[in-house]
């Protein structure tokens, strides 16, 4: 998982010593990374040293994508159900706006 637990907890405004939901947060962090990589058609890496030569479409994770991952974790943490009483609309500066420019679309 590219997101660190400290980053997730800071985003959610949880104390670092609050560990009751660490397994859930880990699951969310892995899920948003996997879903983002699927959307981008690219694998994400923490550093250039981690990027293997045999992955020409691989991407060292820029800050915009890290922010998008954190936004998704926040969304899943605050909305633990697929049903809502209020219609929710995507904000212009959300996930798609942040990661869209990095998407690889093979032709």
TrEMBL record:
**Which Pfam families does UniProt cross-reference here?**
Phage_connect_1
Taxonomic superkingdom: Bacteria
InterPro entries in the record, alphabetically? Phage_gp6-like_head-tail (IPR021146), Phage_HK97_gp6-like (IPR006450)
Signal peptide region: none
Q: What is this protein called?
A: Phage gp6-like head-tail connector protein
């Amino acid at each position: 998982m590219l997101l660190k637990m400290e980053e997730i907890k800071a985003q959610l405004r949880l104390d670092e010593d609050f560990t009751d939901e660490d397994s859930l947060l880990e699951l969310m962090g892995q899920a948003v990374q996997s879903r983002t990589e699927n959307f981008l058609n690219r694998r994400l890496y923490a550093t250039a040293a981690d990027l293997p030569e045999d992955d020409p479409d691989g991407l060292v994770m820029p800050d915009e994508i890290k922010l998008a991952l954190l936004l998704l974790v926040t969304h899943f943490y605050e909305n633990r159900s697929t049903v809502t009483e209020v219609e929710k609309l995507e904000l212009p500066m959300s996930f798609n706006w942040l990661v869209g420019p990095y998407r690889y679309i093979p032709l």
